[in-house]
Design goal:
Blueprint lengths: L6 E2 L2 E2 L3 H4 L9 H4 L9 E3 L2 E3 L11 E5 L7 H8 L5 E8 L21 H16 L3 E7 L2 H5 L9 H18 L5 E5 L11 H6 L1
Parallel strand pairs: 5-6, 6-7, 7-8
Antiparallel strand pairs: 1-2, 3-4
Length: 202
């Protein structure tokens, strides 16, 4: 799916043509919401529908990196960009090449994610929720996405397995949270070495 976006003050939700959202919740049952889970955006043909009204919605907003997030950013977004309804939250820096900010750990029980990374994610999502803004949880993984060849998810089976566990853990953690629009599984996968066909197959 390709989501129509707009740019504000130089900030753009702009990685949708890279390796976009793995999940936008597409069942018409989202309107009924008889599962007790939060309503999700609905895909109907080429349209994205608001689960509360059933009306078409255009998602437009900004990029946030959760590590830079401040507690009043949600209010700033609402007051300075009142029409914005989406945050592309770059909250998972996993095997990204910078040990100072990397979220990756060796702890499978925590989804191979550091506690501080999860805390940043939680705080940023809660801020978006307070202002009724949809969130796309995004992972940037430069090394795992190809810069670390051959130690990347396309060629290293152990790393690939960890990456899958990480995303399953994230999806399970936030499945009951409101205002989750989707998950951007990998931002900007590298195709200089790995053929596009292999990246797509992954």
């Amino acid at each position: 799916a390709v989501v129509s976006t707009q740019s504000y003050l130089g900030m753009t939700v702009n990685s949708f043509l890279c390796f976009l959202i793995a999940f936008l919740y597409i069942s018409q049952a989202a309107f009924l919401n008889d599962t007790g889970l939060p309503a999700r955006l609905v895909i109907e043909g080429s349209q994205i529908l608001d689960p509360n009204t059933g009306e078409p919605v255009t998602l437009h907003g900004v990029n946030w990196w959760s590590g830079y997030f401040q507690s009043d950013d949600g209010l700033d977004l609402e007051t300075q960009l009142p029409d914005a309804n989406l945050v592309r939250l770059v909250g998972i820096l996993w095997d990204n090449g910078n040990p100072d900010t990397d979220c990756r750990t060796g702890d499978a029980s925590q989804g191979y994610l550091t506690e501080i990374c999860v805390k940043h994610l939680d705080n940023a999502i809660k801020a978006a929720q307070r202002h009724n803004v949809w969130v796309i949880i995004t992972c940037r993984a430069a090394e795992a996405a190809g810069d670390g060849y051959p130690n990347d998810v396309f060629h290293d089976s152990e790393l690939r397995a960890q990456y899958e566990v990480m995303w399953r853990w994230v999806a399970e953690r936030y499945r009951t949270w409101e205002w989750i629009a989707g998950y951007e599984i990998m931002s900007e996968p590298r195709t200089k070495i790995t053929p596009q066909e292999e990246v797509t197959a992954f």
